């Protein structure tokens, strides 16, 4: 039986950490869980595999960036999480709702109540004949909220994104950055569990893009809202606590950032990159590592007490460690 999106209760994660067999589920009670997610697009006699067993876990309140080359699968992932597209196989859960089993009517409710969306093109986010406040009120009106609740909520959100003095301006009277601020307010109007943003700074200059990053951080911190941003913009990727890289339809690496205080009392952001080991043990080595050691087809693995060694297969033409000029410990 397909899961449904309740009238106002959107978080269905109670007891989701345990599966039907009583064993812990992958991702536990995280807000977003993708488990061996597959998406295949079919046209005529052709099949294009966009996601090839992708795993991803996003906890409540996180602000993360998803990066990857064109065609890596990051936009497909965002469309699935946004309820725009349906996965082919695997599992995708958001706020405890199984997106693979969701029917058409529940997808509409899901997009209206569980997720908010900010597109790169500002024209897709706002209606040009409505004021900023009216644009923010619109999703609440579609969800059946009374007018007496909509207007104060719209004012509050526009003030939060720095547009308290632009309530009655239409999109054509606002700058690109201001339009994106309104779009963020629209996206969170119905108090969603997740905000999804697709290249939100893609059409903005660097100065304005920095302002949008700060708005996203403000919304994340003030509302405790989980935010997932797909981006090519290093400004965003470098200012979130976690950046997830997708390659060939799978998560390949993550960069985790933390703030440390040095001996002089100065706070510094420390970034550390990790390769992602999926549930079946697959590991994508960075391209520069592969090229440096000429790794291909087969590699030899040896296990030490605290790490694994990855060695080239010399019988396949790979260079020995001595020829590589470096240690091959992985």
Task: Give an account of the 3D structure.
The structure is a single chain. This protein has 330 residues and is an alpha/beta fold. It has a domain at 288-330. It has helices at 74-81, 104-113, 122-125, 132-142, 147-160, 176-187, 206-223, 234-237, 287-293, 321-324, and strands at 32-43, 46-58, 63-67, 89-94, 97-98, 115-118, 194-198, 226-230, 242-247, 250-261, 267-275, 299-304, 307-312. The chain has a seven-stranded mixed β-sheet, sandwiched between helices. Helix 4 (132-142) crosses helix 5 (147-160), helix 4 packs parallel to helix 6 and helix 5 (147-160) packs across helix 6. The longest helix is centred in the middle third of the chain and has 18 residues, at 206-223. It is globular, with a radius of gyration of 22 Å. The termini are far apart. Mean pLDDT is 86; it is low at 320-330.
Offer a few descriptive terms.
330 residues; alpha/beta; 7-stranded mixed beta sheet; 4-stranded antiparallel beta sheet; 10 helices; disordered C terminus
Topology at a glance:
Blueprint: E1 32-43, E2 46-58, E3 63-67, H1 74-81, E4 89-94, E5 97-98, H2 104-113, E6 115-118, H3 122-125, H4 132-142, H5 147-160, H6 176-187, E7 194-198, H7 206-223, E8 226-230, H8 234-237, E9 242-247, E10 250-261, E11 267-275, H9 287-293, E12 299-304, E13 307-312, H10 321-324
Parallel strand pairs: 3-8, 3-9, 6-7, 7-8
Antiparallel strand pairs: 1-2, 1-4, 4-5, 9-10, 10-11, 12-13
Helix pairs in contact: 4-5, 4-6, 5-6, 6-7
Q: What is shown here, in short?
A:
With 330 residues, the chain is of the alpha/beta class. It has helices at 74-81, 104-113, 122-125, 132-142, 147-160, 176-187, 206-223, 234-237, 287-293, 321-324, and strands at residues 32-43, 46-58, 63-67, 89-94, 97-98, 115-118, 194-198, 226-230, 242-247, 250-261, 267-275, 299-304, 307-312. A 7-stranded mixed β-sheet has the order 6-7-8-3-9-10-11, with helices on both faces. Strands 2-1-4-5 form a 4-stranded antiparallel β-sheet, with helices on one face. A two-stranded antiparallel sheet has the order 12-13.
């Amino acid at each position: 039986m397909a899961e449904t999106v309740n009238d106002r209760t959107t978080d269905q994660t109670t007891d989701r950490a345990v599966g039907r067999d009583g064993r812990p589920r992958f991702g536990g009670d995280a807000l977003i869980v993708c488990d061996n997610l597959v998406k295949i697009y079919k046209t005529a006699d052709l099949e294009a595999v966009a996601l090839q067993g992708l795993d991803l876990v996003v906890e409540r309140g996180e602000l993360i960036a998803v990066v990857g080359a064109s065609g890596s699968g990051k936009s497909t992932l965002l469309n699935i999480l946004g309820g725009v597209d349906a996965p082919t196989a695997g599992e995708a859960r958001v706020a405890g709702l199984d997106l693979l089993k969701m029917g058409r009517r529940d997808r509409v409710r899901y997009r209206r109540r569980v997720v908010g969306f900010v597109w790169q093109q500002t024209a897709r986010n706002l209606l040009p004949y409505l004021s900023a406040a009216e644009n923010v009120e619109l999703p609440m009106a579609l969800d059946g909220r009374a007018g007496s609740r909509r207007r104060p909520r719209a004012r509050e959100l526009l003030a939060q994104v720095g547009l308290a003095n632009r309530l009655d301006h239409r999109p054509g009277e606002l700058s690109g950055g201001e339009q994106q601020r309104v779009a963020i307010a629209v996206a969170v109007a119905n108090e969603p569990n997740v905000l999804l943003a697709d290249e939100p700074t893609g059409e903005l200059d660097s100065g304005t893009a920095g302002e949008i990053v700060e708005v996203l951080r403000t919304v994340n911190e003030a509302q405790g809202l989980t935010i997932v941003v797909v981006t090519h913009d290093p400004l965003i990727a470098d200012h979130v606590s976690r950046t997830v890289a997708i390659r060939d339809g799978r998560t390949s690496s993550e960069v985790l950032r933390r703030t440390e205080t040095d001996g002089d009392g100065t706070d510094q952001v420390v970034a550390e990159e990790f390769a992602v080991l999926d549930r079946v043990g697959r590991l994508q080595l960075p391209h520069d590592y592969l090229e440096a050691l000429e790794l291909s087809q087969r590699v030899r693995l040896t296990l030490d007490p605290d790490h694994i060694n990855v060695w080239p297969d010399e019988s396949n033409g790979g260079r020995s460690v001595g020829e590589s000029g470096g240690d091959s410990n992985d």
